[in-house]
UniProtKB/TrEMBL annotation:
InterPro entries: TPR-like_helical_dom_sf (IPR011990). SUPFAM superfamilies: TPR-like (SSF48452). The lineage of its organism: Bacteria, Bacillati, Actinomycetota, Actinomycetes, Kitasatosporales. Residues 91-153 are annotated as: Disordered. Residues 117-136, 143-153 have a biased composition (Basic and acidic residues). It comes from the Bacteria. This is Tetratricopeptide repeat protein. It comes from Streptomyces argyrophylli.
Length: 497
């Protein structure tokens, strides 16, 4: 049955938006959860919920959220917070049993916290209608906003939430908790695809999706993220297929889709899915070639070179790195050229060409010393002195110069920003392997134990493969100090499927 009253577009809740101030929706959601704990409530508030409130889609919160909001802003009423009186939104239209069925409750959440909100439609019916009418969703439904206030205590709480989810449920739980807001429609037939073309909001959402995946990878590694990140990639190419309102927006969408393909390819690469990674990198390269995007082309070739080196195709690694340098030359970024020289050095090391490797390493250092510039791509945020040392360590390790390799690996682990948890584990695993092969089993075991202590935060098949190799080298040295403990703890670590 249809209501006799016409549909009314939601009115933005400007009062609630003003209360949020300069905090991002994710930061404000963390504040809501904290306030709930103070009064014994449990709500699963996230950035999307805050966005729905501010957009006016939630005209009146349920009772659990009402108690939390009134606790946060004592002396104010729901009306003061921009909500409609509960009496004004109750019983306006008949609902079927299916429409009014309670939403699934999050384990441990307060009763009523996940009930349908007091609005004209339930979540399910509204979302299904939106998917039919809009197709791709608004940007706040792609990913929670990037964390702009690094020193804000709420950011630390968000990190704690991710860390607890990772420790209790693994990388898949983290991915579900942080990538779930994507929600783009995928797999639609041609007749079902949206008629509305993508605009700047979709382009911005796609760019934010790339940043969020990179952030999660830096913290936790790739294994738990890869399968979750594949759906956003499919959605991104559906946006391209729908078209864009302007050419500048189309260019942003192509660049964003290409960067997302590279990010997903890297997740496949780091989790040992080399064929999948090669396919994603090739997709990004094709996108770059179609649009004449030399920056995207250089990035795609850069990752292709790294993959070729790890996959045992060193000559391809050299050629891909050289192609990347040709594409990157007009961009004017010395740091990018430095990284690409390191990719070439890795290929030469795989070919056992010590001279070619040393020359490429020298170029990498000289270019790195020129410093950063505005021309440096955003995706290169990981590339600092620690990464330079770590990649050089890998080159010397491939050449069998274990002493030099361990020196650079130790320096890399010491210099790495604590934010990049995965890289700390990677460099320390490299150090452990180099020390073991150099004939220093006690120091190798000590480094290996440090890596094992990080595996509750990091899931990377590459790191686990390195540790397995180190364990094999240390087996004959079980009587050395610490080696037995390392081997026993390593054997007890569950292997990721």
């Amino acid at each position: 049955m249809t209501s006799s009253q016409p549909e009314r577009p939601p009115r933005p809740n400007l009062a609630f938006r003003q209360l949020r101030g300069r905090r991002s929706p994710a930061e404000f959601a963390a504040l809501v959860r904290r306030a709930a704990r103070e009064i014994g409530e449990r709500v699963s508030c996230d950035a999307r919920y805050i966005g729905r409130v501010e957009a006016g889609e939630i005209r009146c919160p349920n009772y659990a959220y009402e108690r939390v909001f009134l606790h946060m802003f004592p002396g104010r009423t729901l009306t003061d917070l921009g909500f409609a009186p509960r009496s004004a939104v109750r019983g306006r239209a008949a609902r079927t049993t299916a429409e009014t069925a309670p939403a699934p409750r999050v384990p441990g959440e307060s009763r009523g916290a996940a009930e349908p909100y007091e609005s004209r439609e339930t979540h399910g019916s509204r979302d299904r209608r939106d998917a039919r009418e809009r197709g791709p969703r608004a940007p706040h439904q792609l990913y929670e906003p990037h964390e702009p206030f690094a020193k804000d205590p709420l950011n630390h709480e968000e990190s704690d939430v991710l860390r607890r989810a990772f420790m209790t449920g693994g990388g898949a739980t983290v991915a579900a908790a942080t990538l779930a807001p994507l929600g783009l429609t995928t797999g639609a037939t041609a007749a079902e695809r949206p008629l509305r073309r993508a605009g700047t909001s979709e382009a911005a959402a796609l760019e934010e999706a790339v940043r969020r995946i990179r952030l999660l990878d830096d913290r936790h590694g790739a294994d738990g993220l890869y399968r979750r990140a594949a759906a956003p990639l499919r959605a991104a190419y559906e946006l391209l297929d729908a078209g864009a309102t302007r050419q500048t927006t189309a260019d942003r969408l192509h660049a964003g889709a290409g960067e997302l393909a590279i990010s997903v390819g890297w997740l496949a690469h780091d989790s040992g899915r080399f064929d999948d990674a090669r396919s994603h990198y090739a997709e990004a390269l094709a996108t770059a070639r179609m649009t004449g995007d030399t920056a995207l082309e250089a990035h795609a070739f850069c990752n292709t070179a790294f993959l070729a080196r790890d996959a045992g195709r060193p000559r391809e690694a050299v050629r891909a790195a050289q192609a990347a340098q040709r594409a990157a030359q007009p961009l004017g970024s010395d740091r990018l050229m430095s990284l690409l020289a390191l990719r070439e050095a890795g290929g030469w090391a795989g070919l056992a060409d010590r001279t070619g490797c040393a020359q490429a390493l020298a170029r990498a250092h000289a270019l790195f010393e020129r410093g950063r510039s505005d021309a440096d791509p955003e995706w290169m945020s990981f590339y600092g002195e620690a990464e330079l040392e770590g990649l050089e360590a890998q080159c010397w390790s491939t050449l069998g110069d274990w002493r030099r390799a361990s020196r650079h690996a130790r320096r890399a682990a010491r210099l790495q920003d604590p934010h990049f948890t995965r890289n700390i584990a990677l460099y320390t695993a490299e150090l452990a392997d180099d020390l073991a092969r150099e004939g220093r089993p006690d120091e190798a075991a000590e480094a290996g134990l440090r890596v094992l202590a990080l595996l509750d935060q990091v899931q990377s098949s590459r790191i686990q493969t390195m540790l397995a190799g180190t364990a094999r080298v240390l087996l004959p040295h079980r009587r050395a100090s610490g080696v037995s403990e390392f081997l026993d703890r390593h054997a007890s670590v569950p292997r990721r499927v």
